[in-house]
Design a protein that fits this description.
By secondary structure, the chain is mainly alpha-helical. The chain contains 12 helices and no strands. About 50% of the residues are buried.
Length: about 400
């Protein structure tokens, strides 16, 4: 590890240093977290379960996003920054371990782990940065302290009260993030002018998408292993892994590839970075739901799908396409027709698939995603080397 004084921690906007091994190590906690989220949803496949999963996903994402923002502003090769990341890793892993019972008997464990990670990480940054950065670091710390109260009180409550209080806590956090953490006597972060290390930021988003897709691949492989490899189960596996491959292809081609160039080209890169954060959150949510779909289809390819199963099997990729459309708009200031057409086709297919086997639904989904990917490839052939064109 490299040691340094507080004044040497800040990264330069022209720093092309890519993500470090420590950051990849930090991401491993979120492999566990996403796996736990998909398993929690499949055990409670109702509207209440979907809402609880959304609340927990928003909490998990906010921890990752806040840590990523720190390593984008501060040099992760410095020992003090590495210590901050390791603290966040430990707290995130405790959160992930408590996720399955976060709305049950482990609510206090989850809430304390979240508050300790979010507030503790920000306090550490306040302590280690130089005076010129301390005001910027103090603002999110204050907001973390405000959101801590509904987290802890919610953990001591039960049922609907816990869901309401935790939703309030997340509303505080995300509102603060969106507004630049306005704080009395300190003002707000100048979000439009904050330095952004474009290559590092874009790579971190891509890496988290790979983590999410890795969870989908993991669930797909583990579920197949418990089926005995019968023909219909193997066919369901083929449809599910094809879906995973197509989601990767649709993401990376080409907005995912050009995100760093778009951040560099835009006049106010922090705004584009914020839009990319929300787009990736929606895509990650879609992948988590898609993993639930794979875990349903592979062991149960026959019979009737039913509304809840169809909502999961088709809804996950639909969420992904919506998030991908948001990313494309951020990078190119337009959305390809294939995104909206794909979404509309999935919506139109939904009622017709309630009474067909899940295997048929899975192959119909793969066909729609293949059409979207093919449209992307055709557009690339017509417009080779298309540069990013984000709004100024």
């Amino acid at each position: 590890m490299t040691t340094s004084g507080a004044g040497e921690l800040q990264r330069r906007p022209d720093d092309r240093e890519r993500s470090t091994f420590l950051e990849l190590f930090f991401d491993l906690a979120f492999v566990v977290a996403l796996f736990q989220l998909s398993h929690g949803l499949i055990r409670n496949l109702r509207w209440s379960g979907a809402f609880q999963t959304l609340v927990l996903l928003l909490a998990v994402w906010f921890i990752w996003l806040g840590t990523q923002m720190i390593t984008d502003r501060l040099d992760p090769r410095r020992s003090t920054v590495q210590f901050v990341v390791i603290v966040a890793l430990i707290g995130s892993l405790v959160m992930a371990a408590a996720l399955p019972e976060a709305f049950g008997r482990r609510g206090l464990v989850f809430a304390v782990a979240y508050v300790a990670t979010e507030l503790g990480r920000n306090l550490l940054v306040v302590l280690v940065v130089s005076r010129d950065l301390r005001r910027d670091a103090t603002r999110p710390t204050v907001w973390s302290g405000v959101s801590a109260l509904p987290w802890i009180v919610g953990a001591l409550a039960h049922g609907t009260a816990r869901a309401v209080l935790w939703t309030l806590a997340l509303a505080v956090s995300y509102t603060g993030f969106g507004l630049g953490f306005p704080t009395p006597w300190l003002g707000r972060l100048p979000a439009a002018d904050l330095p952004v290390v474009a290559e590092h930021l874009a790579e971190r988003y891509r890496q988290f998408l790979i983590i999410a897709l890795g969870e989908l691949v993991l669930v797909t492989g583990l579920t197949l292993g418990g089926t005995g490899f019968a023909l219909d189960h193997s066919a369901a596996f083929a449809a599910s892994i094809t879906t995973a491959v197509l989601l990767w292809r649709i993401y990376i081609f080409r907005a995912g590839q050009l995100l760093s160039a778009a951040i560099t080209a835009v006049a106010k890169p922090a705004r584009l970075a914020e839009a990319a954060a929300y787009a990736h959150l929606v895509m990650v949510a879609g992948i988590v739901v898609s993993a639930v779909g794979a875990e349903l289809v592979i062991p149960h390819p026959s019979g009737r799908a039913g509304p809840a199963w169809v909502a999961v099997i088709l809804g996950g990729p639909a969420l992904f396409l919506a998030g991908r459309a948001g990313l494309e708009h951020a990078v190119f200031a337009r959305v390809s027709p294939s995104r909206w057409i794909g979404l509309l086709v999935l919506v139109a297919l939904t009622p017709a698939t309630f009474h067909v086997p899940p295997l048929v639904v899975a192959f119909a989904l793969a066909a729609v995603l293949f059409a979207v990917a093919a449209a992307d490839a055709a557009r690339a052939r017509r417009n080779p080397g298309e540069p990013p064109s984000p709004r100024a």
